[in-house]
TrEMBL record:
Residues 194-217 are annotated as: Disordered. It comes from Triplophysa tibetana. Its EC number is 2.1.1.386. Residues 206-217 have a biased composition (Basic and acidic residues). Gene3D superfamilies: Vaccinia Virus protein VP39. Residues 194-205 have a biased composition (Acidic residues). This is Small RNA 2'-O-methyltransferase. Keywords: Magnesium, Metal-binding, Methyltransferase, RNA-binding, RNA-mediated gene silencing, S-adenosyl-L-methionine, Transferase.
Amino acid sequence: MNTPFSPPLYMQRYQFVVDYVQTNRPRKVIDLGCAECCLLGKLKFHRDCIQLLVGVDINADSLLKRSKLYRVVYPSLCDNNIYQRTLVNEVLYEAQRLRQEWLQKNIDSNNNTHVHCYPSVEAEHRGAEGGADEQLSVYQQGGTICVPLSSVWSRPRVRGLCGTLHRLREILLDDSLMRLNADGTVLILPAVDDDDDEVEEEDKEEEVKTASDVAENVKENWDEELAAFGNV
Protein backbone atom coordinates (compact mmCIF):
# COMPACT_ATOMS: atom_id res chain seq x y z
CA MET A 1 0.00 0.00 0.00
CA ASN A 2 1.43 3.32 -1.10
CA THR A 3 1.46 6.14 1.46
CA PRO A 4 2.01 9.87 0.93
CA PHE A 5 3.93 10.09 4.20
CA SER A 6 7.69 9.80 4.26
CA PRO A 7 8.84 8.36 6.56
CA PRO A 8 5.68 6.36 7.34
CA LEU A 9 3.51 7.62 10.17
CA TYR A 10 4.35 4.75 12.51
CA MET A 11 8.06 5.59 12.20
CA GLN A 12 7.30 9.25 12.86
CA ARG A 13 5.41 8.14 15.96
CA TYR A 14 8.42 6.18 17.16
CA GLN A 15 10.68 9.20 16.87
CA PHE A 16 8.14 11.45 18.57
CA VAL A 17 7.89 9.08 21.55
CA VAL A 18 11.66 8.74 21.82
CA ASP A 19 12.09 12.54 21.75
CA TYR A 20 9.34 12.93 24.35
CA VAL A 21 11.00 10.40 26.67
CA GLN A 22 14.38 12.12 26.35
CA THR A 23 12.84 15.52 27.13
CA ASN A 24 10.32 14.70 29.89
CA ARG A 25 11.93 11.56 31.36
CA PRO A 26 8.72 9.69 32.32
CA ARG A 27 9.01 6.76 34.70
CA LYS A 28 6.31 4.64 33.08
CA VAL A 29 5.74 4.10 29.34
CA ILE A 30 3.02 1.95 27.74
CA ASP A 31 2.96 1.23 24.00
CA LEU A 32 -0.55 0.25 22.87
CA GLY A 33 -0.28 -1.84 19.72
CA CYS A 34 3.42 -2.56 20.03
CA ALA A 35 3.33 -5.14 17.15
CA GLU A 36 6.98 -6.00 16.35
CA CYS A 37 8.16 -4.22 19.54
CA CYS A 38 10.34 -1.81 17.54
CA LEU A 39 9.48 1.12 19.78
CA LEU A 40 10.13 -0.94 22.92
CA GLY A 41 13.50 -1.85 21.48
CA LYS A 42 14.37 1.83 21.10
CA LEU A 43 13.12 2.76 24.56
CA LYS A 44 14.89 -0.02 26.44
CA PHE A 45 18.13 1.98 26.22
CA HIS A 46 16.63 4.77 28.37
CA ARG A 47 16.96 2.86 31.62
CA ASP A 48 18.11 5.92 33.54
CA CYS A 49 14.56 7.32 33.61
CA ILE A 50 12.10 4.54 32.61
CA GLN A 51 11.23 2.26 35.50
CA LEU A 52 8.29 0.44 33.87
CA LEU A 53 8.11 -0.29 30.12
CA VAL A 54 4.99 -2.13 28.88
CA GLY A 55 3.86 -3.22 25.42
CA VAL A 56 0.27 -4.26 24.64
CA ASP A 57 -0.85 -5.97 21.42
CA ILE A 58 -3.60 -8.35 20.26
CA ASN A 59 -0.99 -10.62 18.63
CA ALA A 60 0.10 -12.75 21.58
CA ASP A 61 2.48 -14.90 19.51
CA SER A 62 4.48 -11.85 18.43
CA LEU A 63 4.82 -10.69 22.03
CA LEU A 64 5.87 -14.10 23.33
CA LYS A 65 8.66 -14.33 20.76
CA ARG A 66 10.16 -11.01 21.88
CA SER A 67 9.26 -10.91 25.57
CA LYS A 68 12.73 -12.02 26.68
CA LEU A 69 14.55 -9.97 24.08
CA TYR A 70 12.95 -6.73 25.28
CA ARG A 71 12.66 -7.55 28.96
CA VAL A 72 13.01 -4.41 31.05
CA VAL A 73 15.98 -4.15 33.40
CA TYR A 74 14.91 -1.98 36.33
CA PRO A 75 17.28 0.53 37.96
CA SER A 76 19.41 -1.23 40.55
CA LEU A 77 20.78 0.12 43.81
CA CYS A 78 24.03 -1.58 42.83
CA ASP A 79 24.55 1.45 40.62
CA ASN A 80 26.27 3.96 42.90
CA ASN A 81 24.62 7.00 41.28
CA ILE A 82 21.13 5.54 41.62
CA TYR A 83 21.86 4.43 45.19
CA GLN A 84 23.12 7.86 46.27
CA ARG A 85 20.23 9.69 44.59
CA THR A 86 17.71 7.36 46.26
CA LEU A 87 19.31 7.78 49.69
CA VAL A 88 19.56 11.58 49.42
CA ASN A 89 15.90 11.84 48.35
CA GLU A 90 14.85 9.67 51.28
CA VAL A 91 16.92 11.74 53.72
CA LEU A 92 15.46 15.00 52.42
CA TYR A 93 11.94 13.61 52.68
CA GLU A 94 12.37 12.44 56.29
CA ALA A 95 14.17 15.65 57.30
CA GLN A 96 11.34 17.74 55.88
CA ARG A 97 8.83 15.64 57.81
CA LEU A 98 10.72 16.23 61.06
CA ARG A 99 10.96 19.93 60.24
CA GLN A 100 7.22 20.20 59.59
CA GLU A 101 6.42 18.32 62.82
CA TRP A 102 8.62 20.71 64.79
CA LEU A 103 7.10 23.79 63.15
CA GLN A 104 3.57 22.56 63.81
CA LYS A 105 4.27 21.77 67.47
CA ASN A 106 6.12 25.04 67.90
CA ILE A 107 3.12 26.95 66.53
CA ASP A 108 0.81 25.14 68.95
CA SER A 109 3.06 25.92 71.91
CA ASN A 110 5.39 28.92 71.64
CA ASN A 111 7.15 27.92 74.84
CA ASN A 112 8.23 24.56 73.43
CA THR A 113 11.44 25.29 71.54
CA HIS A 114 12.78 21.71 71.38
CA VAL A 115 10.93 18.58 70.30
CA HIS A 116 12.67 15.26 70.94
CA CYS A 117 12.71 12.79 68.04
CA TYR A 118 13.32 9.06 68.33
CA PRO A 119 16.03 8.96 71.04
CA SER A 120 15.38 5.28 71.89
CA VAL A 121 16.47 3.93 68.49
CA GLU A 122 19.68 5.95 68.51
CA ALA A 123 20.44 4.91 72.08
CA GLU A 124 20.49 1.26 71.03
CA HIS A 125 23.09 1.89 68.31
CA ARG A 126 25.17 4.60 69.94
CA GLY A 127 27.58 2.11 71.44
CA ALA A 128 28.18 0.51 68.05
CA GLU A 129 28.72 3.89 66.43
CA GLY A 130 31.22 4.87 69.09
CA GLY A 131 30.25 8.54 69.05
CA ALA A 132 29.60 10.98 71.84
CA ASP A 133 26.13 12.03 72.89
CA GLU A 134 24.59 14.04 70.09
CA GLN A 135 21.71 16.50 70.09
CA LEU A 136 18.59 14.40 69.46
CA SER A 137 16.09 17.21 69.13
CA VAL A 138 15.06 19.48 66.30
CA TYR A 139 15.80 23.12 67.06
CA GLN A 140 15.86 26.53 65.41
CA GLN A 141 18.97 28.62 64.98
CA GLY A 142 18.43 32.00 63.37
CA GLY A 143 16.63 31.55 60.07
CA THR A 144 17.29 27.81 59.87
CA ILE A 145 15.85 24.61 61.32
CA CYS A 146 18.50 22.15 62.50
CA VAL A 147 17.57 18.48 62.21
CA PRO A 148 20.01 16.05 63.89
CA LEU A 149 21.29 13.51 61.41
CA SER A 150 20.81 10.78 64.02
CA SER A 151 17.07 11.52 64.09
CA VAL A 152 16.86 11.13 60.31
CA TRP A 153 18.99 7.98 60.43
CA SER A 154 16.62 6.48 63.01
CA ARG A 155 13.87 6.32 60.39
CA PRO A 156 13.58 2.71 59.17
CA ARG A 157 13.82 3.45 55.43
CA VAL A 158 16.94 5.59 55.79
CA ARG A 159 18.58 3.14 58.17
CA GLY A 160 17.77 0.28 55.82
CA LEU A 161 19.47 2.05 52.90
CA CYS A 162 22.66 3.21 54.59
CA GLY A 163 23.16 0.73 57.43
CA THR A 164 25.20 2.86 59.82
CA LEU A 165 25.10 6.49 60.87
CA HIS A 166 28.78 6.90 60.05
CA ARG A 167 28.22 5.73 56.45
CA LEU A 168 25.22 8.03 56.06
CA ARG A 169 27.30 11.01 57.23
CA GLU A 170 30.09 10.20 54.76
CA ILE A 171 27.68 9.97 51.83
CA LEU A 172 25.85 13.20 52.65
CA LEU A 173 29.05 15.18 53.19
CA ASP A 174 30.00 14.41 49.58
CA ASP A 175 26.60 15.44 48.20
CA SER A 176 26.09 18.99 46.96
CA LEU A 177 22.33 18.99 47.67
CA MET A 178 22.80 18.50 51.40
CA ARG A 179 23.72 21.28 53.81
CA LEU A 180 25.30 20.03 57.03
CA ASN A 181 27.09 21.70 59.92
CA ALA A 182 30.88 21.59 60.31
CA ASP A 183 31.07 18.17 61.96
CA GLY A 184 28.31 16.63 59.82
CA THR A 185 25.93 15.83 62.68
CA VAL A 186 23.09 18.22 61.80
CA LEU A 187 21.09 18.84 58.63
CA ILE A 188 20.37 22.53 58.09
CA LEU A 189 17.02 23.43 56.51
CA PRO A 190 15.41 26.84 55.93
CA ALA A 191 12.92 27.89 58.60
CA VAL A 192 10.68 29.52 56.00
CA ASP A 193 9.73 28.03 52.65
CA ASP A 194 10.21 30.02 49.45
CA ASP A 195 6.43 30.19 49.04
CA ASP A 196 6.13 31.75 52.49
CA ASP A 197 8.73 34.37 51.53
CA GLU A 198 6.68 35.29 48.47
CA VAL A 199 3.53 35.61 50.60
CA GLU A 200 5.37 37.83 53.08
CA GLU A 201 6.63 40.06 50.27
CA GLU A 202 3.10 40.36 48.91
CA ASP A 203 1.80 41.25 52.38
CA LYS A 204 4.50 43.90 52.76
CA GLU A 205 3.62 45.40 49.38
CA GLU A 206 -0.06 45.43 50.37
CA GLU A 207 0.79 47.14 53.66
CA VAL A 208 2.86 49.79 51.87
CA LYS A 209 0.05 50.35 49.38
CA THR A 210 -2.51 50.69 52.19
CA ALA A 211 -0.28 53.11 54.09
CA SER A 212 0.20 55.14 50.93
CA ASP A 213 -3.58 55.31 50.36
CA VAL A 214 -4.12 56.47 53.94
CA ALA A 215 -1.47 59.14 53.52
CA GLU A 216 -3.12 60.40 50.34
CA ASN A 217 -6.50 60.58 52.07
CA VAL A 218 -5.02 62.47 55.01
CA LYS A 219 -3.36 64.92 52.61
CA GLU A 220 -6.62 65.50 50.74
CA ASN A 221 -8.53 66.08 54.00
CA TRP A 222 -5.81 68.45 55.19
CA ASP A 223 -5.98 70.45 51.97
CA GLU A 224 -9.77 70.70 52.27
CA GLU A 225 -9.50 71.93 55.86
CA LEU A 226 -6.92 74.55 54.87
CA ALA A 227 -9.11 75.77 52.04
CA ALA A 228 -12.11 75.97 54.33
CA PHE A 229 -10.06 77.85 56.93
CA GLY A 230 -8.93 80.36 54.32
CA ASN A 231 -12.51 81.08 53.30
CA VAL A 232 -13.52 81.91 56.86
